[in-house]
Write a structure and sequence with these properties.
The structure holds 2 protein chains of 2 kinds. In chain A, about 0% of the residues lie in helices and about 50% in strands. By secondary structure, chain A is mainly β. In chain A, strands 2, 4, 5, 6, 9, 10 and 11 form a 7-stranded mixed sheet that branches. Chain A has a 4-stranded antiparallel sheet with strand order 1-3-8-7, with no helix packed on it. Chain A is globular, with a radius of gyration of 13 Å. The relative contact order of chain A is 0.31. Chain B is mainly beta. Chain B is built from no helices and 10 strands. In chain B, the strands form 2 sheets. In chain B, strands 2, 4, 5, 8, 9 and 10 form a 6-stranded mixed sheet that branches. A 4-stranded antiparallel sheet of chain B has the order 1-3-7-6, with no helix packed on it. In chain B, strand 6 (about 65-70) and strand 7 form a beta hairpin. Classes of the chains: A mainly beta, B mainly beta. The interface of A and B includes residues 50, 60, 62, 104 and 105 of A.
């Protein structure tokens, strides 16, 4: 069974940093592109970034490019996102997801909540 | 890149059909056959229901179907069941740098 479990969320002050992790199991992690997406409270979904199988290709949503860095460790079956210069608008539940065909995301974790507040 | 436009709500009685629309532009929905649909129950992770406009992942009932015409994609849920009550989001590939855009979401209520 495919499982994605995010961790690392919490309360952070504006301007602060946070690193989220996603532990993957139930599939060959190193064979898949992986993505991060988020959902602000009461709002819709927003794709943030993805990374290819060996970490050599990364793409970002324009509004987070330069502030967020996606990475992976295939030996640990883990996906990460380093988030810097956080603002209140970054408050959201952050999901990791597995890339599927046609730019779809076929498995999602349950998410981890990041709250940016003073 | 702006979010794709979905009607905020849709409803139907059990057994009926409901159709949700998702309107974009020629740079996303109209430009690629890479439209996906996701179901999200409150407090839960999104679930992929349709990919590449009309294909269903394994395990998704054939009551769910997708289509596209021009810049508008649609999801139809036939034979509505109580468990279909959820938020539904469309998504489309939008070109350069693997970018993908989501819709504003539609809350489906089973009356």
């Amino acid at each position: 069974e495919v499982q994605l479990v995010e961790s690392g969320g919490g309360l952070v002050q504006p301007g602060g940093s946070l690193r989220l992790s996603c532990a993957a199991s139930g599939f060959t992690f190193s064979h898949y592109w992986m993505s991060w997406a988020r959902q602000a409270p009461g709002k819709g979904l927003e794709w943030l970034a993805n990374i290819n199988q060996d970490g050599s290709e990364k793409d970002y949503l324009g509004s987070v490019k330069g502030r967020f860095t996606i990475s992976r460790d295939n030996a640990k079956n883990s996906l990460y996102v380093q988030m810097n210069s956080l603002g209140v608008e970054d408050t959201a539940v952050y999901y990791c997801a597995r890339d599927f065909v046609g730019a779809s995301l076929d498995y999602w974790g349950r998410g981890t909540l990041v709250t940016v507040s003073s | 890149q702006s979010a794709l436009t979905q009607s905020p709500s849709a409803s139907g009685s059990p057994g009926q059909s409901v159709t949700i629309s998702c309107t974009g532009t020629s740079s996303d929905v109209g430009g690629y056959n890479y439209v996906s649909w996701y179901q999200q129950h409150p407090g839960k992770a999104p679930k992929l229901m349709i990919y590449e406009v009309s294909k269903r992942p394994s395990g998704v009932p054939d009551r769910f179907s997708g289509s596209k015409s021009g810049n508008t994609a649609s999801l139809t849920v036939s034979g509505l069941q109580a468990e279909d009550e959820a938020d539904y989001y469309c998504s489309s590939y939008a070109g350069s740098n693997n970018f993908r855009v989501f819709g504003t979401g539609t809350k489906v209520t089973v009356l």
